[in-house]
C-alpha cells in the first residue's frame, strides 16, 4: 500500500487545490504527495508542499484517513489528510516537482461541482462547520478520525 499525505489549507479565498488535466477534464487534488521510506508523515507533507508549491506550513491534526482501492496496475493508496496553515511563501507551482497545471484557491461553495482527489468534500465541509471558521479546519472530534473507503478512480 502506498501512503500519501495531503494538506487541507483554507483561507478567505477558499480551499487550496492543485488542478490537473486527465482524460479531457479537470481533476483537483489536495496538495501533498508520497511518503519516503522512514519519513515521518508530517515531515513528508512539509517537504512535499515546499517542493511543489514553495510554501512553508505548520502541520496541524489529522482531519481524515481515506483509502483508495487498487486500479489496474496501481496499488491501493492510504491518504492521511492534515489541517495545515501556511507560515511562509505564496503558493505557486514548481514544474520540476509536479505535473499539475495550476494551483488555485477554490471557494468552498464551489467544491461540489469539482472532481476532487481524494474525494473528501463532505469531511472538509463538516470539519469547517465544526470549527466555526473557514480559516482553520479542526478534527470532527478529539477521539474519532473519519475513515473513508474511496470508490475506484474512474476519471483516469
UniProtKB/TrEMBL annotation:
Q: Does the keyword Hydrolase apply?
A: yes
Per its record, what are the GO molecular function terms? hydrolase activity
**What cofactors does the UniProt entry give for this protein?**
Mg(2+)
What single Pfam family name could you report for this chain, choosing any that match? NUDIX
Keywords in alphabetical order, please: Hydrolase
* Keyword check for Hydrolase: yes
Give me the segments passing through the membrane.
none
Q: Which InterPro entries match?
A: NUDIX_hydrolase-like_dom_sf, NUDIX_hydrolase_CS, NUDIX_hydrolase_dom
- Please report the stretch or stretches of sequence annotated as the Nudix hydrolase domain: 1-130
PANTHER family referenced in this protein's UniProt entry, alphabetically: GDP-MANNOSE MANNOSYL HYDROLASE, MUTT_NUDIX FAMILY PROTEIN
Protein name per its UniProtKB record = ADP-ribose pyrophosphatase
Q: Which organism is it from?
A: Thermanaerovibrio velox DSM 12556
Amino acid at each position: 500500500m502506498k501512503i500519501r499525505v495531503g494538506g487541507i489549507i483554507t483561507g478567505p479565498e477558499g480551499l487550496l487545490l492543485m488542478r490537473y488535466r486527465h482524460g479531457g477534464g479537470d481533476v483537483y487534488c489536495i496538495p501533498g504527495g508520497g511518503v519516503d521510506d522512514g519519513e515521518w508523515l508530517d515531515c513528508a507533507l512539509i517537504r512535499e508542499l515546499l517542493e511543489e508549491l514553495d510554501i512553508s506550513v505548520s502541520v496541524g491534526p489529522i482531519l481524515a484517513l481515506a483509502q483508495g482501492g487498487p486500479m489496474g496496475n496501481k496499488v491501493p493508496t492510504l491518504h492521511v489528510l492534515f489541517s495545515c496553515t501556511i507560515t511562509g511563501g505564496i503558493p505557486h507551482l514548481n514544474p520540476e516537482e509536479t505535473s499539475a497545471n495550476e494551483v488555485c484557491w477554490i471557494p468552498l461553495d464551489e467544491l461540489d461541482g469539482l472532481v476532487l482527489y481524494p474525494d473528501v468534500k463532505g469531511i472538509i465541509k463538516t470539519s469547517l462547520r465544526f470549527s466555526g471558521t473557514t480559516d482553520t479546519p479542526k478534527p470532527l472530534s478529539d477521539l474519532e478520525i473519519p475513515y473513508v473507503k474511496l470508490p475506484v478512480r474512474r476519471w483516469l
